[in-house]
Design a protein that fits this description.
With 354 residues, the protein is mainly beta. The chain is built from 3 helices and 25 strands. The structure holds calcium ion (2 copies).
């Protein structure tokens, strides 16, 4: 009888695991292929060969690139090289990406930058907020951008128990930001398990020197985050649920869910087109290819533009799509004055004139 019960329980467990496995394949869109959507005037950016996971552009056309992200579960083309921040002046005719110097006293050897966000204070000081994973831990670094010297002055490292697995941030003050956690746990095995079991335990956290709190939760895996041009709404990408959430910002900085836009792709970082307020989304059409890297069958790239997200029927258009022959694993797309930059998780980056 005991054996029969054990066998039945084993059978149920295997059936459940099988079901979770199939569900995970769907969440990863493991069988999806993309049709190419080409743009005529594009070239790969020199000097970016091991990922530019996030890109943020200032209103004056200076673009920041977070490069060289490493993660235990991800492929890397430069596993021994620390990451960095590159800058490109999009006002130039043939802009080049140059590495910014970082002030002494900051541990550059362990720099592993992920999501970034710029913030311009009322006195015109420009701050760059960077999610960092030194030794795969989680911190948020705040830098002051010194334009004349092409350098970043390190001001502060933030660590907090509510920031166990940070992916991206949106700065809303000189030391104030919203951050997404893409996992609930920080331990690699528990991270894997929570994803496999689809627990929906990930969240968005508000951080300020006086108050740190969870402001939205229940995401499968919260990833890219950004703010509407009028600063009223926060957009959050749930990568494995293929959703973009629109949340309304309250005076106490809490967020209330307004709507969810369902898409057919894994949504990574979100950027705002300053000329229209449209959302540009760096997407992974097939997450299986992204996480299990095979150079013969590489991950593809896809960039979507979302117009009028608050309306009843937002318009979603594919701006760019490629099967991986040119660009693998697009994670972000940002525009400035008819110029489009597309970054990737661990591959190259593309510069296009629209
Ligand atoms: Ca970002
Ligand atoms: Ca991301």
């Amino acid at each position: 009888m005991g054996r029969l019960l054990a066998l039945s329980l084993l059978g149920i467990a295997l059936a459940l695991l099988g079901e979770r496995f199939l569900a995970l394949r769907n969440r990863l869109k493991a069988s999806r292929e993309v049709e190419s959507v080409d743009l005529p005037n594009c070239h790969l950016i020199k000097g970016i060969e091991a990922g530019a996971e996030d890109i943020d552009i200032l209103p004056n056309g200076l673009a920041f690139f977070s490069v060289g992200l490493k993660c235990p579960s991800l492929h890397s083309f430069a596993p021994d090289k620390p990451g960095g921040i590159l800058m490109m002046d999009l006002n130039e005719e043939n802009p080049r990406a140059l590495e910014l110097r970082i002030s002494r006293g900051f541990n550059l050897a362990l720099f592993n930058p992920h999501g970034i966000s710029t913030f311009i204070d009322s006195d015109d000081t420009v701050y760059l907020f960077v999610v960092n994973h030194p030794e795969f831990k989680n911190t948020v670094e705040i830098f002051k951008f010194e334009e004349e010297e092409n350098s970043l002055l390190h001001l502060k490292t933030i660590k907090h128990e509510l920031l166990p697995s940070v992916n991206d941030i949106i700065a809303v003050g000189p030391e104030h930001f919203y951050a997404t956690n893409d996992h609930y746990f920080s331990d690699p095995f528990l991270k894997y398990l929570e994803t496999y079991l689809n627990l929906h335990w990930t969240n968005v956290v508000y951080y300020s020197p006086n108050e740190v709190k969870v402001v939205a939760e229940g995401f499968d895996s919260a990833n890219g985050i950004n703010i509407s041009p009028d600063k009223k709404y926060i957009y959050v990408a749930d990568i494995l649920a293929h959703e973009i959430h629109v949340l309304e910002k309250q005076p106490n900085m809490n967020l209330t869910q307004l709507k969810v836009l369902k898409l057919d792709t894994l949504v990574d970082n979100l950027s705002i087109d300053p000329s229209s307020g449209d959302i540009l989304v760096g997407c992974h059409p097939n997450g299986q290819k992204l996480f299990v890297y095979d150079p013969k069958n590489p991950p593809s790239s896809e960039v979507l533009r979302i117009q009028n997200i608050l309306s009843e029927k937002p318009t979603v258009t594919t701006v760019y799509a490629n099967n991986g022959s040119v660009l693998q694993g697009s994670s972000v797309a940002s525009v400035y004055d008819k110029k489009l930059l597309i970054g990737t998780l661990y591959h190259r980056a593309l510069y296009c004139e629209l």
